[in-house]
Every structure is written in C-alpha cells, then in structure tokens.
Input
Amino acid sequence: MTEKKAAVGGAKNWLLRIRQASTFNIFLILLGMCVILALLAGGKFLSVSNITSVVRQFSFYAIMSIGMVLVILTGGIDLSVGSVFAFSGIITCMGIMRWGVPVFPAVLLGILAGAAFGLLNGLCITKLQLPPFIATLGTMSIARGVSYGITGGYPIGGLPDSFKFIGLGSILDVPTPIIWMVVLALLFSVFLRRTIRGRWVYAIGGNEEAARISGVKVNQTKIIVYVLCGMMAAIAGIATAARLGVGQSTAGVGYEMDAIAGVIIGGASVSGGYGNIIGPILGAAIMGVLRNGLVLLNVSAYWQQAVIGVVIIVAVSFDKLQHDRRSSLRKTR
Amino acid sequence: MRKLLSLVLVTLMVLSLVPALAQENITIAVVPKSLDNAIFLDAKTAAEAVGKELGITVQWEGSTTSDAAQQVNVIESLIERQVDGILISCNDADALKDVIDRAVDAGIQVGVFDSDSPNSKRAFYAGTDNYAIGKLSAEYMMEYLPEGGKVAILTGVLGAPNLEMRITGFKETLAAANSPIEVLPVQTGQDDVQKSVEVVNQYTAANPDLAGWFFDGGWPYFADPDAMPELKAFMEKGGRIVSIDTFYPMGQFFPLGMVDVLIGQDYFAMGRIGVETLYKLIKGEEVDLGVSDDTVKNYIDTGYEVVTLENYEEVWKTKSPW
Output
C-alpha cells in the first residue's frame, strides 16, 4: 500500500486524500440527512428560501466553531465563547446607543472586546498554567457577569438599520451572515494550511513537548488561537445582535456547547492535532439541518432536544468507526 | 463504493423535488416564550381544545429556553413550513419584530399572546392588561402599608414587555398617590423558579426592615413552601406580599400565611381567543380585533382574577393540578 501511495502522481494524490479524509464522511452524513428530509418534506425543505434560512441560522454557530477548532487543535478548549458572544454584542450596542460611537468603530470595539477575553484566556493558560477547562470556565463567568453589570440586565434595543445590515442584510441575494462565514472560513483555511503558524497549531496539538523542542513558539501560538477564538465569538455575537436589532446580556447561553459539538461532529479530535476548517462548518450544518428538519416534520418540540442528542452520537460514532478502520488498516501494512 | 453512494443520494434528492400532495388542513402554530416554562401549559390546553372544535391542526412549537435568537429561528422554520397562522408570546419586543413582519409579508396570520411586540405587523395582541394589574397591585400594597415602608420588586427576564408594564403600573400608581412607600431596586429571578427562590430568600434576609414584596410573576410560589423559610419569617413579622399569577401550585401558600393577594392571568383565554381570532382571520371572516389607543393597537383584554385567603378555596375548585 505504501508503494502505491508513493507511486501516485500529484493530481491523483489529491483525489486520494479527499476520499480518505474523514471530512468526506461527514459530508456524506450531511448529504444523507438532506436527502431524507427532502424525501419527507419535499419542496418545503429544498426551497431556496428554506435552504437560505437554514444556512443563515447555522452560520452564526459555524463562525463560533471556526474559532473553537483552532483552540481544540492545540488540545485546548474554550468554554467562555457563549459569554463573550453576549459581551461583545453588548459592547458594540452600548457603543452605538450610549457612547455615540459610529457603527463601524463600534463593531471593531466589540471584536476587540472579544479579543481581550481571548487574551485573558491565553495568558491564564500559558503564564498561570491553568488547565483550559478551568481558565475558560472562569472567564465564562466573568464575561457574563460584566455583561449583566454594565447593562443592569436590561437589553439594548433600537439599533440603527446600518448596524442591523450586518445580520439582516444581503449582498447579491446572499444573506450577510453567510458571507461572513465563508470569508472567515477561507481566511482560516489558508491560515491553517499555508502559514507556518498554522502548522504550529497542529504540531502543538499533536505533541506539545516535541513541538516546543523543535522550536515551535508554543505559548505565543496558544495565546493567538485563544484570541482568535474570542474574536470569532465576538463576530458571531455582534452579527446576532444585529440580526435581532437588540443587544442582550442573556444571549448566547449554552452556545459554547453548540460550538464544541460542531467541531467534534466535524471530525476534529478532542485531544488535538487533527481537524480542519471545513469539518466544523459541516458539523454546524448537520446540527442546523437537523433542527430545521425536526420543525419542518412537526416532530413534537419537546422531543427535538433528545433527537438532536441521538443524531450527534450516531454521527460521531460513524466517523470514529471509519477513523479506527483507517488507522488499523494503516498499522497492518 | 462511496462514489456510488453519493451518486445515489444526489439522484434521490433530485427526484424528491416532485411536489408533495397539497395539505388541505389549516395549521396554526402556537409559540410560547420557551418550552421549559410551565405557565404556558394552560394556553396550550385551551389552544388544542379549540383546534379540535374547529377541526384544524394546532401545533405547539418553541425554543427550549427563553432565548430570543432561537425563538426567531423557530418562527423562520414555521414560515418555511407555510403554516396558516402563528400565535406567539415574544421573548423580546425588538428581537421578534423583524421575523413577525416577514411572516405577515409571507401571507401568514400572526397574533401575539401574553407578551407583545407592539411595533410589528401582528394582527392583534391578546393578553392581560399588564399596566392595570401593576396598578391594582400598588393599590393593595398601599392598603396594606398605609404608613409606608420599603417594598421590593421581583421580576423575571429583564426587559420583557409584559413584566415591564406591570412594574411601571405599580411604580406610577404609588407616585401618583404620593404614597410614603419606598420602592427598592428591581430584583430578577430570570423567569427561573430556583433563581427566584434564591433571590427572594437572600434579599429578604439582607433587608430586615423590608415591609413588602411585589412579585410581578409567581415564580417563587412554584417551589416548595419549605424552600423559603425567610419568606415565612418575613410574613410572620408582619411583611406583606402581593403577587401576580394564580397557577395551581400557588394556592397552598394561602393557608400557610405566605401570601396576601394573588392577581391572576387567564392563559386559557389567551390560548382560546388567540386561536379563534387567527382562525377567523385565516378564513377571511369578520372578527373583533380588540381596542386601539395611542399606546397599543388591536388589544384584546383577556382579564384577570383577584384571590385572597377569603375566596381562594372557592377559586381553586375550578383549577386542575399540574
């Protein structure tokens, strides 16, 4: 088998990699779900407006998952994204409504706020040597508390249309959240695969000590991925506030679980070192299509939560089986 | 093998574009603030009963938590499903406005119950006159505390339109009467029973000179009486409590001396009137859309009931346990 792989030329190698990639499995799962839904709900599922609606709905989660996969690739985790989601939205909304900041700078301010919490996470994990789970659990509380504190718990409404465009508008008939998702996906795909820093992210997750010894700037890279994760949570939170026309300190509760689920369903390894950008987007898509499908099929709302859990377990098991089969095959050669 | 699988799947998907049989039945979706809040169940019961009478399909949909963004997603799916009518209790007036307008533009009849989005294109709002019950609560409180004193307010999710109206009614009535009552900063239990119990216990313990509580929603009374020793002690010392809502589990607090007056809403009426009115709108029949003034358009008052220790047993005979 090794001789065959070595002998294959450039283009064929690329095709081979796609077929072997577990990402293709996940895409198959998504396709299978879409087919089942299309058969059961017909034109209601496959209509342009429904597909657009579903993609727009999961694009917010997908953006958070893009940030989360960077952290998970290094073997870490970020539980604070749901709170940072709310906090950044609040900062931007306060900027526009209370501090007289114009829309664009206010958005940048919100993203900066997300980056700040990411920096806090990164410093706690590298300088204070706190386990990521604990550190981000702490910042999750801090961000949520500060959101409540500065707003008194009240929502900030009445936002201008120019701001709402970020979440409600469309460019060439494509809703803006989808555009942000695609742009960010492309950016980070390039980052992970074509930059040295991107390769370092994988190296840290694969074997941190080995990476450190071979000259990878481990601490610096870790801080960078947490900052990026915070910024992604901020973008998703600001876009959601724009879509609703109101900034809420209660927004995003529990969204960290959706972000993590999207990454795991998307095939990344929880212990780090394995994964890509397409995976989390497919993972978010699977959950989005699932939620949409259950409502379209009139599944009792109370059971939807249970069904989502079952499908997640099935999807991850399917991928794990394929993964184990591939690695055991490789071992026998 | 995998290539074949993908080919089969894509072919099946293309074939499925053959349109499904058209649905004759009228469908109305009822969307509460969240599925984890038991207070909406009366509305559910009434809505489904009316649905059976009229021979239409009534579907209970919603987000699992009181999350405005998720509620918007649910409404979007309903628009795709092309339901005929939507009856919704809004988590946030601003957040739901856009999607309600989109539903109306898509030809769906939309009515609101319990919690309004007044600037949206909804056809009507069926609910309690929240300002009036806030006012009535203040009147009772003034009767109980003629000398004045410190009164605390417990609310649910901050910024919820219906709750805000009750607080405004309460505060403005006290101000207009120049009452010596001092209203303390609003406390929140976030619509959650456990949090509400905690907040009430802690705040009461922290303020020994507290004279009264106004609960603008009945959350503390959905818990077990033993969970609120502070409240019991408070009442025994002469504290007074006025609370909104008259759900079944709340009745037991009367004989325990842990509440003075309950002002209840009629969720049965909200569900019934909501679905009936939507049905008439869908059928194009003549329908009463309530009253309009400069504060609200098309408001249908579903009324309220006042319960004290004197009449609570009688009133509770008409209620069923949860």
In short: Chain A has one domain: 45-298.
